[in-house]
Amino acid sequence: MIETHTARDGEREAVPPSPVYKVGVYGATGYTGATLMRLLAAHPNVRIAFATSESAKEGADGVELVPVAEAPLVSADVVFLCLPNGVSGGIAAKAVAAGVRVVDLSADLRLDTAALYTKTYRMEHPAPHLLPAPFGLPELDRTGLPGARYIANPGCHVTATLLALIPLARAGALTGDPIIADTKTGVSGAGKSLKLDSMFVEVYGDVKPYNIGRVHRHVPEIEQALHKLQPDAGPLVFAPHLVPVDVGLLATVYARLRSGWDLARAREAFHAAYDAEPLVNVLPPGRHARFKDVAHHNHGVVGLHEGAGDTIIVTSAIDNLRKGAASQAVQNFNLMMGLPETVGLL
Amino acid sequence: MIETHTARDGEREAVPPSPVYKVGVYGATGYTGATLMRLLAAHPNVRIAFATSESAKEGADGVELVPVAEAPLVSADVVFLCLPNGVSGGIAAKAVAAGVRVVDLSADLRLDTAALYTKTYRMEHPAPHLLPAPFGLPELDRTGLPGARYIANPGCHVTATLLALIPLARAGALTGDPIIADTKTGVSGAGKSLKLDSMFVEVYGDVKPYNIGRVHRHVPEIEQALHKLQPDAGPLVFAPHLVPVDVGLLATVYARLRSGWDLARAREAFHAAYDAEPLVNVLPPGRHARFKDVAHHNHGVVGLHEGAGDTIIVTSAIDNLRKGAASQAVQNFNLMMGLPETVGLL
Amino acid sequence: MIETHTARDGEREAVPPSPVYKVGVYGATGYTGATLMRLLAAHPNVRIAFATSESAKEGADGVELVPVAEAPLVSADVVFLCLPNGVSGGIAAKAVAAGVRVVDLSADLRLDTAALYTKTYRMEHPAPHLLPAPFGLPELDRTGLPGARYIANPGCHVTATLLALIPLARAGALTGDPIIADTKTGVSGAGKSLKLDSMFVEVYGDVKPYNIGRVHRHVPEIEQALHKLQPDAGPLVFAPHLVPVDVGLLATVYARLRSGWDLARAREAFHAAYDAEPLVNVLPPGRHARFKDVAHHNHGVVGLHEGAGDTIIVTSAIDNLRKGAASQAVQNFNLMMGLPETVGLL
Amino acid sequence: MIETHTARDGEREAVPPSPVYKVGVYGATGYTGATLMRLLAAHPNVRIAFATSESAKEGADGVELVPVAEAPLVSADVVFLCLPNGVSGGIAAKAVAAGVRVVDLSADLRLDTAALYTKTYRMEHPAPHLLPAPFGLPELDRTGLPGARYIANPGCHVTATLLALIPLARAGALTGDPIIADTKTGVSGAGKSLKLDSMFVEVYGDVKPYNIGRVHRHVPEIEQALHKLQPDAGPLVFAPHLVPVDVGLLATVYARLRSGWDLARAREAFHAAYDAEPLVNVLPPGRHARFKDVAHHNHGVVGLHEGAGDTIIVTSAIDNLRKGAASQAVQNFNLMMGLPETVGLL
C-alpha cells in the first residue's frame, strides 16, 4: 500500500513559493465536508476563509462555523459546496456572479441539461444558466478544468463506475449490450442525516441491494459521460448494495467487448489510460480491487479479469469520501487554479 | 420476517407417532457441523448415535465426540458427512457398502463424473462408483430423493445461484448469453480452519472479490444443474465477494431473457416454481433479498427486478450455514426417510 | 449452547390444556417491542389482542398496528408497555383502573417513590398512586409477582448488574466500599429512535464510555434494590460503554468482600442463589461471561473471578433485548398469571 | 479530532539539515511491524537498511524482506525488534554487542530482573545482562532515554494503564486499595499469528473478558512502574476485554485517592504532567476517552471523571499499534538519537 505522506513530502519540495488561496467550505460537518476540511487544512496553497454549518458552531480543530446565511462569500477565492441537491446550485450561481470560483460536490451541476435534472431529481433546476458545467472527473477529461470558474464534482458511484469503463469506451470497445455495475458501498455514502436505514442496528449484519436496475438517479449521469465517449455503448444496469463498513466503494463491472478485443487488449487500454494518472492505479493480473486498497487513501484502483466469452470483469475501488468526493474536489481545485494536480493529496 | 416457531407447533401436531432414526455426524465441530448438530438435537425423529471430531472431545451441550477412526459407523441408520473434499467420499462409500444411508455435505458426490471432479478439484475421485449421485437441491428436483441411499448436498453458492435461475431455466427462458452471478458471502462460508484471510483484522472493513470469472470450482456444479434444465442456456460468470459479516449469502444474478419474456412473465414462473415450496419465498415486487431476511433462518428468499432491455435481475439470499448447508441436509434427510420435508426446520 | 426449542417441547407437553390470555402490546415496533412480539407469537398461552405503533400500520408477520389512542385497552387481559418514560405510567394507571393487568417495560414504575423518580428523570411522576410497584426481577425476589396487577420490569443494565450482586448482597458479604460496574452494551440498548450517536458510521470502530460515575439514571434503581438486600453495602460506581455490536450486555463488576469471605465462599453463594433458577446459569471456574453466551437467548450467565486481596470480579452477561427486557417481561407475565415461569422462553 | 498532518508541517520546517540513520526492522510483517515500517518510511531521519520476515519476501511498497538469519545486523545504526518474546532478547544482546542500538518492542527487556521475567513468562531470560533496561515510556520518565544503547518499548495495555495513573502515582495520591483497570482492546492487539480466537467469525458480535484479575502477564510490568513512582500504591486488578474492532485500546481505570485529593486536584496533576507532553492530551471536563479519538493517530488521550466518594475514574485511550507499539518506538528512537521527540509522528 502506498503511504501517501512520504510522497507528499517529495511533492512539496518541488512546489515553488506558492500562492495561497482563500477558500470557503459550505456544509463542513457532513462526512464529505469534514473529510474535505481535513484535506484543506493540510493543503499548502489553501487558507480556510470560512466554513458553514446550520447546526454546529465549531468544527474539528476548533474551526469556527457560521450558518450559510452569514457566510462571507466574497471573502473567498474559491468555495466548495457540500450542500443538498437543489440548494447547492443556488449558492453556486451567487458565487459565480460574484466572481468566486466554485467546486460543487452536489449533483446540481452534473447533468448537462435542466430537463434531465428535473426528470432525474424531480425538481426545478436552481441555476440552469450554469449548464452544462465542466465535469470534474479528470481521468475522463481534464481539458475544461484549468481556469474553470465552476466545476461539477462527481460522486462515488459515478467515479468508481466510470473509472472501470473509460478506457474501454474511449477505445470504442464496448458492445451495445447492457453493461452491469454491481456496486458495494460503505454506509458513509448515505450521508450524516438521520434515517433509520443508516442506524447501526439496521445495517449491522446485513448486506442489502437498493434501487437496483435503472431507477437509481446516478444512472443518467454515468450514461451521459459514457455515451460521450462511445455513443453506441449499451445501457447501464446499476445495482448498488449497502454493506456494513463505514467507508469504501467497490464497483464490479461486467461488460462485453467488440470483436477484436480480449482481456489482454483491454489491459493495454487501461494502462494507456491510467499509467500517467497520479490517482488511479491499474492492479497487476490476478489482483482484485478491494476496500482495503483504497480506504483512507486518495487514489482509486482498478483490476481486470476474464469473464466468459466476450464478457470482461473490471473491479474498481475508491474511498467514497475521498476519490469519490472530497479528494476529487481538491484535485479539481488544483487543476482549476493551475496548481500541480496532486498537491495536498499524495 | 416470518417467525418459524409458531408454524412448527402446527406442523408437529400433524405428525403421527413417528420413527426415530439413529444418525451419525462426521465433522461435528466446524461451522456447518455445529449448526447441523443443533438442528438435529431439536429434530423429533432423530437420535444422535455419534459425532466425530479429530480435535475436540466434547461438543456443545456436552455431546461426546470421537475421532473418525473410532466412529461406530454401523450403529447409525444415516450419517451426515461434514468432512473435507476428498475424505468425505471414502466414508460415503464405506457407509453405503455397510447399508448406512448418507447425506454428504462435501463436494465429493456433487459432480456427475469422476473426470469432471478430477478436473475441478485436481485429485482422484474417492468413490467413482457412487456417481452420479442424487443431487439434494429439492427445489430443483426432488424425485430422486425419497428412499435414496445417498444424497449429494449442495453448498451455499450453488444453492443461492440456482434458486435464482431454476424457474427461468426450467421454462427455457434464458438466452445463450453469459449469466452473471455476483455473490456476497459471510465469512463462515470459508470454514473454521485457520487461515490469514479469515482473521478478524484482515476481514474487518474490507469487501473483497475472490476467484471471479470462471475459475471458482463451483462453476461446473452450477452449470451442470442449469444445463440439465436448459441445455442451451449461456455460460456462468461467477463473482464471489467476501463481506465482513458472519453468516449470510446474497447472489445478485443478471440474466437475459428470450423474446416473449419480460419481468411479469418471469415473476409468474417464479411463483409457479416456488409458491408450493416450504423453504423458498418469492418476495413481493419492490423487495430485494438481503442477509437480514434469512440469517439464522432455514429458508431462502428471491426477489425479481427490472434490468435494462431483456436483462432481468434476481436477488437470492440464504443463510449459508442453513439453507446453504445444514438445514438443506436436514431437508434431504427428511425426504430420504419419507418424513414430512420440513420437520425440524419450521 | 443450549438449544431452547427442544426444551420447550418438553415443557409444553407438561402443560395441561391451558388458558389463553389476550394481551395488548403498546409500542410494538421498537427493538424491545418487536422482540416481545416474536416471543408472544410463540407463547402457547397468549393471543395477541392488539399492538400499537404511532408510525407503522403493519408489524412483522403482517400484524395490524393501531395508534395508542385507538388501542382497545379493555379487550386485553394483560398489556405490555414498551413506551417512553413519562408516557407509560399514564397508560399503566388507565389499565389498572380498568382491571387490565400491566407489565411495564418503561422506567415509570421502577423507583419506589415519586420524589426519587422526579429527581432522577426530571419530570412529574405520571401515576404516583401505583408506587411502590412489584419489581419484576424474579431472581431478586419473586414473592410479590404471582397475581400482581402490575409489575415494573427492569431493564438491561439493572438486570445484569444486579444478577452480579444479588447473592453477595443477600448474604451481607459486601463492604461499604464503592462497587464498580463497568458495562459494555450493544447499540440496540439505545433504542430505535433516530439519533446521531446510534448511526452506523458513528458507532463503527468505536468503543465509547458515556455517563460514567453516578450520573446515569439507572444508578438509583440499582442501589434501591441492592440496599434492600444489604443496607450497608457501598455506593455504586457505574460506567457504561457503547460497543459496536447489535445485541448483548456485559457487566464486569468489582466488589470487595467482608472478612470471612473469599472467592470459594462467594461461589457457593452464587450456586445457592441461582442453581434452581431456570434463567440464570453460573459458569464453571475459569469461564468468563461474554456476549456470545447469551445473544439471542433468554437466559443470563454469571462468572466469578479472583481479583486482588478482598476484591472479587463478577462477569454478568445477558441479551439486552431479552433477559434485559422482553423475555424478562414474559417471565413476569408467566409469574403474574400463575403459568410455569419459563413457558415460551425455553 | 486533532489532525496530525498540519502540525507536522510546522514541525518539519523547524528541523535543521538533519542526520539520516540506517535502521533495521526485525519482524516487519506483523501488525506492529507493518505499522512501524510505514512510520519509518515517512521519517525524515531514517533510511531502512533492511527488514526481516520468515515468511514473506516482499513487504508493502515492495520493500525486500530477508529472514532474520540473513539480516545484515551491523549495516544498521539502530534496530527495531518486533519479534516474539524469548527470541527478541537474544537479537538485542547480539546487536548491543555489535554496537548497534536497539528499540525492543517485545516484552524481553521490560521487567527489571530475570527472576521476575522467568516467573511471568515461564522461560529463561535470553539476555539477563541487559537488565534493567531503560523503560521507553517517555511520559513516565525520559531521563534515561537520550543516548540509550537499548530501550524496552512497553506495549499497549501497559502504556494506556500507566498514562491513566502516572500523574496520581507521581504525586503520591493513590491509596493502598486495589486499583482497577478494565480495558477494551481491538483484535490487532492479539497479533497476526493464526489462532481460532482471532478468527472473524469467533470475534464478530462478541465482547469477551480474558485473563482477568491478576493472571495477565502485564500486571507485573504495570506494577513495577507504578510502585517506583509510589511504593505504597495498591495492587492492580487488571481486566482486559476483547471487542470486535481492529485497532484501539481503552483503559477505564478506577482508583481511590488519599485524603486531601479530589477530582479538581487530580485534574491539576494531570495537566501538570501532560500539558507539555506532545503525545498525550488531557480531555476537557465531560469528555470521555474513546477509540475514535486515537485510532490511526500517534497520540493518546485521557479523561477524568467523578466516581463515588474517594474513587476517581480515568479513561485512557491509545491506538494499540501506534502509541501502544510502533509510534512509541519511533518516539523512543527520536529520544535515543537526540532528534526532536515527535519527528515523523505529528
Features:
19% strand; five-stranded parallel sheet; alpha/beta; homotetramer; Rossmann fold; globular; seven-stranded mixed sheet; Dihydrodipicolinate Reductase, domain 2; 2 domains; 10 helices; 346 residues
Report on this model:
The structure is a homotetramer of 346-residue chains. The first copy, chain A, is of the alpha/beta class. Chain A has 2 domains: 12-153 and 325-336, NAD(P)-binding Rossmann-like Domain (Rossmann fold), CATH 3.40.50; 156-318, Dihydrodipicolinate Reductase, domain 2 (2-Layer Sandwich), CATH 3.30.360.10. Helices cover 28% and strands 19% of the residues of chain A. Chain A has helices at residues 4-14, 31-41, 88-97, 114-121, 156-170, 200-203, 219-229, 263-274, 291-294, 326-337; strands at 21-26, 46-51, 78-81, 101-104, 150-152, 179-185, 208-209, 236-242, 249-256, 280-282, 300-306, 311-318. In chain A, the strands form 2 sheets. A 7-stranded mixed sheet of chain A has the order 7-8-6-9-12-11-10. A 5-stranded parallel sheet of chain A has the order 2-1-3-4-5, with helices on both faces. In chain A, helix 3 (88-97) links the parallel strand 3 (78-81) and strand 4 (101-104). The radius of gyration of chain A is 19 Å and the shape is globular. Residues 1-15 of chain A have low confidence and may be disordered. Chains in contact: A-B, A-C, A-D, B-C, B-D, C-D. Chains A and B meet through strand 6, strand 7, strand 8, strand 9 and strand 11 of A and strand 6, strand 7, strand 8, strand 9 and strand 11 of B.
